[in-house]
Amino acid sequence: MTQLFLENGLFYFRKAKLAVMFLLSVFLFRGTLTAQTTIVTDSPFVTGTTVVIPGAKFRRSGYHNLFWGKHYRKEWTTAVRVNNFYIDTAAGGLTVIAESGSRQSRGLRLKNSKGKQYVLRSVDKDFGRAFSDTFQGTFITHIAKDQASIGYPFAAITITPMIKATGIYHTNPKIIFVPRQGPLGEYNNKYGDQLYLFEERADENQEDAEYFGNSKNVIGSERLFEHIYEDNDDRVDQKAFAKARLFDMFLGDWGRHPDNWRWAKFEDDKITIYRPVPRDRDQAYTKFDGFWPWIGTNVAGATHLESFDFKIHNVKKFNKPGWPLDRPFLNELTEQEWVQIAKELQESLTDQVIENGIRQLPPALFAISGETLTAKLKSRRNHLQDYAKRYYNFLSHHVELRGSNEKEFFEIKRLDNNETRISIYKITKENEIKKNPYYKRTFYNRETREIRLYSLDKEDIINVSGPPHGVKVRIIDPDGTDSVSVEAKGRTKLSVGKKFLFDTAHTKKFDFFILPLFSPPEYKVFEDDPMGLFTKTGTRISVNMRYKPQPWRTAKYMHTHLLSANYGFIRSALNFGYVGRFGHVVGPFDLVLKSRYDALGIENYFGTGNETVKAHSKRNYYRTVTNRFYGGIGLSASGHHQTFDLSGFYQNIKVQRTNGRFIATDHGIDQSVFDNKQFGGAEAAYHLRKTNNDRFPTAGLDFLLAVDYVQNMKETSRSFTNVVSSFSFYVPLGKSFSIAARAGGAALVGDADFYHLNKLGGYVNLRGYDRERFSGKTIFYNNNELRWITDTRNYFFNGEIGLLAFYDDGRVWQPLEKSNKWHTSYGGGLILIPFNRVSLTGTYCRSKDGSFIQLKAGMFF
Question: CA angle 485-486-487, nearest 5°?
Fold first, then answer.
């Protein structure tokens, strides 16, 4: 009889409701996104306008919307009338100078006879373009394309009246239809008959553009950073930037990464001021609903993807994409200034202004969602002062101050134990300190935990004075040439010679995650378990909580803590685990704490020896149930493809006397095995793995050696030592074929109960047999595989697919048993490596015990 084994939690079928729902949803996706981007419903050559459907492809069933989101599908699939656009007459006559666009949109750059530039950007976005080539053409990009319906198709044109009322610099986007036309030239077929956003390109000289402040030079964020850090006379208008960021919160525009900003340059008495010009409002009013988008955003940790609602639920997370600019350019403002800016915004954004903005929508769209958008904007406006306070508190918790490549004097004065004032002065070429600081702010212990001061290049002067307490100040001197005077002892840290290659900004990760299908290697609670104390539970659902604080500017973690709960469906096993790792406690060694409690520990026991008989067909007959606890403490070091572990442990085991099973019948089992037993011991392990690919190695080797000593704490005369070892090698045979071979074994010396004996069978070391099919003091096994692999690309995945053929053998030696029998098995299988992320194997196995189908996440070895 063929049996089905499900290993490493790959599937659990009836229990896997999420998996079935997802696969069904993916099947329904196929072939549904082939509609034309823009559907034209009348002739564009009659009235100068055209009736179009912006995104007919987003029209879906109620079932689809339940799982993948309703979003703004109704708005995308509603016919609207828009103006036609002809490039030879627009803006005084335009010519195409280049293609443009981003990872999500495509477009054209245009220029008129005066040299002023404009851009056309497609209204319809393709989120699938943001994925790497590995995912292109698969259901992943298919789903991503559909999720573009989270955006509001005409959001950009509603913003202009509102942002104009605030005084924030801005573009003036229009939604237009571009018919096929001769002046498009070579781009006619690709870009004609589509819906676009048309606006000014915020770049270079804009003297004639009041909406850009008539700036003579508008630059991007990358150039801004260069100017700011090159010269301390170049500065960002922080009040103007704070106003723009609060306006982002008002709109629900979370996608404010550096590339979505331009900067208008102004000269003011030898000082260069840069004011923000926000662009690309694709994320305004976005809506995230549907079952799978909710799962995706929460599991992926993308908590900034918050639906546009009547208020922001988490101001800190919502603004996450903007942190790279917010931290350096919003570090001077006080809470009162933030609140005042918010108040001014509220006064500018009157009900009439908001209503006028939303009324820019085509009437058909306003009828669908205009009133709702208006109500949400009014509500968010009313909360702006609260958002200002909350975001100020977040930015004030850890503050970054950067000097420039010019010489500066940093004065850090602890006014008392609760207030710290930092002033930064310019030092002239004559080495004179300017009278007035160009930066000045007082920090309070109740608001700020740490200030990071980057002095950058040149020989700066840094002075710290005052009482010993107050806010912690961390001084970073990259080249070690600064003159640092610290009169105030305590709460001051100096880092010399630290370059900016890795700046973690002191992060703490506290994650809660559920792994319903399988656990990738990084989530394994015990990677090295030579004693078999923590055997895998097979197909399982895992709930894990991990806490990982990371020191400032350090790639190495400080300490990690992982709590896990696992339920194995095949064996109905339940366990809880904890692993704590403290980095580099003793030289290169980490301190490791680990514990595990098996409320229902399940494993097979067919008897002891090499020729035990499997007389019953019911698998439960040979299963033993134990209650186990393990606690260990040790040291672990890793590097150069090697790991070394040394630890001591305590173990408590209670075997349940389960009536009607093998363990409860008289098979010469010492009845004391059912007593509660306690053990102590030590274990050491060395592991070397050097392969060309962790998921599917075709060249390299793997070696493991582990030694364990276990002492029965009640019966002191009973103890044992166990040595475990294995060696694997991988040899390529041309481009597609390879050979993998492994030899391993274990030898136990001493007096051990059956659950401590070495085990042979199952996906651990001998395929074609049940797990723990044979038990004894000494075991040996040999696994051999011929593998073939090739690249593949299809709708369901892009990656590799392969085949394998195998032959395994092994046996057990037990004292007083005379046996020359070797247990063998053979078979073949299928290998899948979807998206080159994880290897999945399905194997058909034959042996004298019968035939088995084993499904596994990862290769057998």
Answer: 115
User: Could you tell me if 663 and 624 are in contact, meaning their C-beta atoms sit under 8 angstroms apart?
Assistant: yes
pLDDT tens for each residue of 643-655:
999 999 999 999 9
Write the single-letter amino acid at 661: R
Q: Please state, in angstroms and rounded to a whole number, the distance separating the CA atoms of residues 553 and 500.
A: 8
CA pair distance 10, 848, nearest whole angstrom: 26
Residue 86, judged by CB atoms within 10 A of its CB (0-12, 13-18, 19+), counts as middle
The CATH code that applies to domain 218-280+296-397 is 1.10.1070
Q: How far apart are alpha carbons 526 and 580 in whole angstroms?
A: 11
Contact 84, 196 (CB under 8 A): no
What is the CATH T-level fold of the domain 516-857, as seen in this structure?
Porin (2.40.160)
Given the DSSP bridges, would you call strands 408-414 and 461-465 parallel, antiparallel or unpaired?
Answer: parallel
Cα dihedral angle (15, 21, 22, 23), rounded to 10 degrees? 90
Residue 126 is which amino acid?
D
Could you tell me the pTM of the whole model? Answer: 0.76
Decide: helix, strand or coil at residue 191: helix
State the first-to-last Cα distance of the chain, in angstroms, to the nearest integer: 26
What tokens does 284 get? 């305004």
Which segments of 105-166 does DSSP mark as H helices, in order? 139-146, 155-166
What are residue 81's phi and psi, to 5 degrees? -100, 130
The span from the CA of 632 to the CA of 530, in Å, is: 14
Residue type (1 letter), 573: A
- Encode pLDDT of 635-682 as tens digits: 999 988 999 999 999 999 999 988 889 998 866 788 889 999 999 999
56: confidence class by pLDDT, cuts 50, 70, 90:
very high
340: closest CA among 246, 470, 261, 432? 246
List the chain domain ranges: 32-150+170-212, 218-280+296-397, 403-496, 516-857
Structure token pair of residue 400: 């970054």
**DSSP for 617-646, written as a single string:** S-GGGGEEEEEEEEEEEEEEEEETTEEEEE
Nearest to 57 by CA among 130, 142, 152: 142
Nearest-angstrom CA–CA distance, 594 and 579? 4
Measured between alpha carbons, how far is 400 from 669 in angstroms, rounded to an integer? 68
Tokens of 263: 């900067």
Radius of gyration of the chain from its Cα atoms, rounded to whole angstroms: 33
The 10 Å Cβ neighbour count of residue 188 is 16
Q: Residue 449 — φ and ψ, nearest 5°?
A: -90, -40
Give the C-alpha separation, 438 to 410, whole Å: 11
